[in-house]
Amino acid sequence: xxxxxxxxxxxxxxxxxDCCYAFEPExxxxxxxxxxxxxxxxxxxxxxxxxxETVVHRIRTGWHRNMQPSSVKNLLLTSITAANICVFDLxxxxxxxxxxxxxxxxxxxxxxxxxxxxxxxxxAYIYAETLRQLTKDHSLVQELLDAGDLTPDEAKNxxxxxxxxxxxxxxxxxxxDFTRSQFGKGDKLLLCSDGxxxxxxxxxxxGILDEHADNAAKKLVGAANAAGGxxxxxxxxxxxx
Length: 241
Description:
The protein is α+β, with helices and mostly antiparallel strands. 34% of the residues lie in helices and 29% in strands. It has helices spanning 43-62, 69-93, 140-147, 152-156, 194-197, 202-211, 216-226, and strands spanning 2-8, 18-26, 29-38, 101-102, 104-110, 113-119, 123-128, 130-133, 177-182, 188-192, 233-239.
């Protein structure tokens, strides 16, 4: 298993409110996470960093050998729930952090399967000859698309494109979506913030994942910057090599 991750503030933003990390809790297993913070001043940066640190710590301390699928899901659930509490409590305790929050998408790859958990509009994709989105955005645009009130072309330039309907840290309780998929030999997993997907079309993402084995994350971030770099950009790529 090979993995790489890159986060960049982009061309137009003054600070980076994205945060990411990946590590191997045991040989042959990989955990990865991407958070895209929101809030004024440095609050978004604080929210995403705190969420990543909390989830990573919980995964490290809760991991054990012979993890079963139900155990993996439960560990992700308790880890993200703990991060939600940490971000919410900080936001409530200090006025400068009031209203801050973050998206989260994280994954555990184990025994040729990937379990993904997410809140918000940061995404997970599997590339295995075709590019398949594993997550469904928690966003106003997605709700309008589901209702048939917006076409995919209209969604690209919708004024409230960045309005998310679910985020970590904005309420005491959080609803988390999960998905589990096979992750075979040669497959690649991409976790990313919307700073990538809003600027780089699926076909270009697919081409980069197909052509670049070891530095795909760097190439994806470079492509987003080449397309305008209008937001913070984060990509984690894991290859079942």
